[in-house]
């Protein structure tokens, strides 16, 4: 389908974007708006879903205007989204019944432990592929039902609907209450084998089936859009990290990518059979195209990556804009012995320790703001190294090359340090924002813009590559220090902490 255009809506943790791509996978237009981060209590993170929907409407209109297109000119619209963020809204009015609970939120720590009981965090892993943790949607739904007056009764009556942000957007765009398999696989409520909601999981977590969306493939036409996108069809939904896997064309077993965004996420394609990790990784659905079998992935999830730079800007004021951090970090030759472990919401993979909290270790009178800036960047690379080690332990195969994408890949200092600590090349594609590209690809496949996966693979191009330059003994010595710093974060939260 020559000269076709596909729009991708990326509803992310800190902003919403719309990017219009042409049939060659090139960016034609882009628009972005940030939304508020709401922190009612320590460890709590919320979003206003109505604000997000207004921003999505604004950025889609702006991107189409830039491209000189009308909605009817689009072959399709795809959606990608922050995954585990949990929203409940009124079926009749479409209004949110509470703020959305963001994936970073830790309020469900005690609830997750209660659900695990004597069996612990792996009680449900054999069914859903996930440990009981604050990260996932199921316990967040339960918390909202338990703590919002009359909400459980409304949910059991079918008057209150749950969705992750893909469902919220599809509902507003088409009126359908659906989600895709990738987002459903992050709720702890979907059976990985059947790709359907599982009554055993629903009973264990305490969520009524009637409030859940229908689970659909990642790439299919969900319906015709209305209002500002009337005339276009919505034809894909993928959780953001699975969308990046798709956009990086990791279609073969063993191919993987790491996205450097608000958090950091390393995913590896494991084929049509789910692989269960013994080293702290998650088993998840990678994508499902129409009636074809689902493709699974192993994932290492890092809670804080780019958001640490944002924290340094907004909370501490050490930099005025995120892109200043590289220049500040380059004012020094190393981290001065300083290590920053950003366990703001506990530690995710491979530890899964909600009791952890962030530390800056190794401080001396020698350390300057340049050293702290460098430690902030290095924190992301070290966390990725830990996840890569877990991947190698599960698969038996060490990482040979890392495909990297996301906003932080513009930081050459970080990318070089990442190659150094992995002892493997890091490669960035021509289109670094592969989350949007993956959603566009999946939507275009559903309507025939691209005929098959090989046509997408043929469009992948390398933009930059960083190769290791750090001596092995220096790398392992620094890694040992990082591991010591991680240990300092553990057991910080006590039973009587608010």
Quick recap of the structure?
This protein has helices at 49-67, 109-116, 125-128, 137-147, 151-156, 165-174, 181-184, 199-205, 240-247, 306-316, 325-329, 369-395, 412-422, 434-447, 453-457, 472-487; strands spanning 5-11, 15-22, 27-34, 46-47, 76-81, 87-90, 100-101, 160-163, 178-180, 190-191, 196-197, 214-216, 219-224, 233-239, 256-260, 264-271, 282-287, 295-302, 339-341, 359-361, 402-405, 426-429, 462-466.
Structure notes:
- It contains 16 helices and 23 strands.
- By secondary structure, it is α+β, with helices and mostly antiparallel strands.
- Strands 17-18-16-15-21-22-23 form a 7-stranded mixed beta sheet.
- Helix 9 packs across helix 14, helix 10 runs antiparallel to helix 12 and helix 12 packs across helix 13.
- The protein is globular and about 60 Å long.
- The protein starts with a strand and ends in an 11-residue tail after the last helix.
